[in-house]
Amino acid sequence: MKKFENFSEWFDEILFNADILDNRYPVKGFAVYKAWGFKIIKNIVEILERKLDETGHVPMLFPVVIPEDAFAKESEHIKGFSSEVFWITHAGDRELDKRLLLRPTSETAMYPMFALWIRSHADLPLKVYQSVAVYRYETKATRPLLRMREFLWNEAHTAHRSWEEAEKQVMEAIEIYNYVFKRLGLSYLVLRRPDFDKFAGAVYSIAFDAWNPDGRVNQIGTVHNLGENFAKAFEITYEDVNGVHRNVFQTCYGFGLSRVIAAIIAQHSDDHGLILPPDIAPIQVVIVPILYKETAGEVNAYAKEVYEVIKSSGIRVHLDETEDKTPGEKFYYWEMFGVPVRVEVGPRDQRERKVTLVRRVDLKRTVVSLEEAVTAIKSLFTEIMRILEERSNSTLKEFIVDACDQSALGEIVKLNRKIARVCWCESVECAEKIREVSGGEIRGYRVDVEEKPEKPCVICGREAKRVVYVARAY
Amino acid sequence: MKKFENFSEWFDEILFNADILDNRYPVKGFAVYKAWGFKIIKNIVEILERKLDETGHVPMLFPVVIPEDAFAKESEHIKGFSSEVFWITHAGDRELDKRLLLRPTSETAMYPMFALWIRSHADLPLKVYQSVAVYRYETKATRPLLRMREFLWNEAHTAHRSWEEAEKQVMEAIEIYNYVFKRLGLSYLVLRRPDFDKFAGAVYSIAFDAWNPDGRVNQIGTVHNLGENFAKAFEITYEDVNGVHRNVFQTCYGFGLSRVIAAIIAQHSDDHGLILPPDIAPIQVVIVPILYKETAGEVNAYAKEVYEVIKSSGIRVHLDETEDKTPGEKFYYWEMFGVPVRVEVGPRDQRERKVTLVRRVDLKRTVVSLEEAVTAIKSLFTEIMRILEERSNSTLKEFIVDACDQSALGEIVKLNRKIARVCWCESVECAEKIREVSGGEIRGYRVDVEEKPEKPCVICGREAKRVVYVARAY
To answer: Taking burial as the number of CB atoms within 10 A of a residue's CB, which of A365, A373, A374, B13 is the most buried?
Structure first.
């Protein structure tokens, strides 16, 4: 299967053929989101933003430019990002008095405003989000969707009265992302990153690493507890119920839209093209009439009737009436675009007032009466999601292999392109050695499941503190 | 009335108090869209994009950066924009090989891709849109929403087989914008700009100028016929049915989201705060329970029942259960935010199973039974829109004054801050003189109504070719 043998070529072909992204834009690392791809992204954003709204977040929009002095306020943060920001130095033919940078992430755009808005405990918690593009000058090779210099994400930023409340917010953020990822049928590990790999300025970072056919994990989301670090740098304080001024405690989390659509494609699709979860498919059902000269009139009329029935139920349905294509060509075309359910309407279906349903996920066919069609399609959607989830989950399980010694570790990650599960003593030296031996990195330990190390550190043989996952990453 | 006497102060207060925009961001011309404002914008975008989808446009997303060489391809275009673009010259500590600019508009980002996508007549028409921020280094004083260096818009770009098809597209674009503006209750003039004021690179430009309380018109949308100008520069050709290669004909149009929300505020709101058209109000109905000690329990329970009834109808409703505010404070608060309908629920309403409806537009009250509430609210919405439209329309009419000579022209525009209607010979010299005398500019002639000049040119006295509108502008 090309997907697992030559992921990169397979992936690029799908992006191009299914109208997801055109990578020929004349600036490296920047690409055009085409209609089908961008509609999918809009549907994902809608699911995510609704959930954020329901949990008390509010949408805002902050400028794309950040002044240099605000960017420099939190010392760890600037250390982490300064090598990869784009600088605006001129406007027209004038040099700017103060340089501006394109947001690589929005802490330093938002927090000077938080300092103005937050006065008292009554202003807390503050929970803000925006869905925007961010800019990072990646020096590694860029890859469409997976590693871009401009990529799309949703970022949320919150401020709280105490460390405990911030901790609760971290849990809520994880739940929100789990909820959305589940609706997309994605499989991934929720890992607490080792300290040397946390977000620049955070107390700790938790990340969602999705499996990818080539064995490199794809970080689709992150959640950070920022503690008081940014509050101190930006002087974000509030007056508590006793009139005492205190720093706020902050969290932030990012949902990588470009990387999430990459994960959806990478995990679910096959060598025929895209396979889309029904919730985000721009077209959920396509109707293809099978026409023969003698019965074309009746079948066409019946296809329109079927279309109206399905449409009135709220399902996103399209009737393919193109005249210069055979039904076979139409099947092929819509399979490429990953439409979850195809409805074939032929002379026999018409005579018996039935429809033939074919699900994209495994091309299994069912014939049902027109009266049952909507119910049958809706239960197909559920069934499709179950299959996508199970498939993806079992692939993730296959990808994870225990490494009991260094040579196994090297073999698993470097040769077999899998994710190694190893015991680690938590020393930076052993982490460095793990990187050397495996060609990958320690991605962290699971936070959703407690895993106790039952063996010594895979490198030094001393007592292990954590069971960690090692993989190459995008 | 402050709105008409001191527009600028009144406007800034509303932006701040109604949580629309915070202008204290530390970069001039860049501001933060706050929750209430950004929700309104999202609702406007939804109405507009649905209409664009229905008329065969597809959403895409192009990069924010444009390489210098693409930007320079169409000579008129670069002449028009080069003095006001932001330049990215560095990334990290490296100087870029080729400078990038932030899109001031997206012709030069999109059309190199159009040249790759368009091959044959079957690829036409191509109708693409995106809702994004654009960047223009305004050297005039910046104003929140009205003149920003970063502003939000929706831009559509189309390619066609012929001049005639492009002309039809211009008409469709005008209809689409008229449709959306009507749903927002806005009043404006649809004007063909004089040649010296057309979009840089266009054959001609049509613009929507909304009235503003201070007499300066606010351009909320533009539609351009680009002819073959960009097709020639970017080599966008197609093979026609006879195998002949031809240039495409293009149009583009922009819907100024930042300026549209400015127009909504400026035209509809009053000295109590915002007044929102129901279609775009984040909360359409707010319920305020009027509580007295003895009956608080029953009234609260009844208010919840009212809430459920209204909510189940799909209306965006909020029950204000805040405990530390009096009903009067709640009225005042929601009036500031422009919520179209307030539902007061007091002991008597509860006893009689009625509700008191108060519409924001004129604070008129009606009492209806709970059973009739949803129907009554929906017809209030219609009535509110009729009132907003009529009010705004009659203000526009009052703003337009005929100027029969130069001194009248000066008086109308400069002194009285109105829009002057004058006859003009179409010479550039007289246009220059009109600018001098009036302190405003020729905004163009109406395209929705044919107006024949019945007098000579207001400046030179020779035969007039057009009836044009003269005003100061944002």
So the answer is: A373
